Every structure is written in structure tokens, then in C-alpha cells.
Amino acid sequence: MSDILDTASQSDPISPVEIVHDVEDIVVDGHLEQHYNFVDYHFEKYGAYCWARTYLDEIDSVSLHGPYRDRGSEQEVSAPELRNEVIAYLKRRFSVIEAPGDRGPETIWERAG
What we know:
The chain is α+β, with helices and mostly antiparallel strands. The protein has one domain (2-110). The protein has two helices and six strands. A six-stranded mixed beta sheet has the order 1-2-3-4-5-6, with helices on one face. A hairpin with a 2-residue loop joins β5 and β6 (104-110). The longest helix is centred in the C-terminal third of the chain and has 12 residues, at 80-91.
């Protein structure tokens, strides 16, 4: 997988350190209640960490989380350079970027047209 990441476009200011495709099934009383099929992008730079998730049934949008102190922490830190570079990376791949807000997900960027 690292060979793929090493060939990232020169136009990207950052590349994910890891990309993980996973599924999560919620089973209640033996019955499938929910099925999530998603890809997580993990970014580390400037001493901070961000991650982004897209659900494959909504592949046009992605949700950005962080920056955090590190991958194992939910302690938010100021790392505007990291956040801006991750947003630039995501803009090349998605039509909508969301981030957690006070009242749930908020759109922070949307492709025009």
C-alpha cells in the first residue's frame, strides 16, 4: 500500500499516511439493523493528526475530524496548516466536505455547480 501512497500527485500538499476500507454491521437480536461501508483517510503532519471518512453509499461527501494531538487522542489542537492541506487533498476527490459542528455535521466546503 505504501507504493500507492508514494505516487501521489504533485498537486497534493499532503498524502494520507494510511487509507482503510472497512465495514461495520449493527446486529440487534440476530437481525441486521444497519450496515456501514466506509473508507477512512488518516493524516499526520506538523505534530498533529486528522482523519476523514466517506461512506461508499455517499461517495461524493466526506467528513473531516481534527486536528487532534495524535491518533489516539480526541484532544483538539491548533494545526491550521494540517487542516488546510487535508482540505485541499479532499477537495480534489469529493464534492462536499463536512466537519462536526455544534448541532451535528456542517458543510465546510461544497464544489460549485
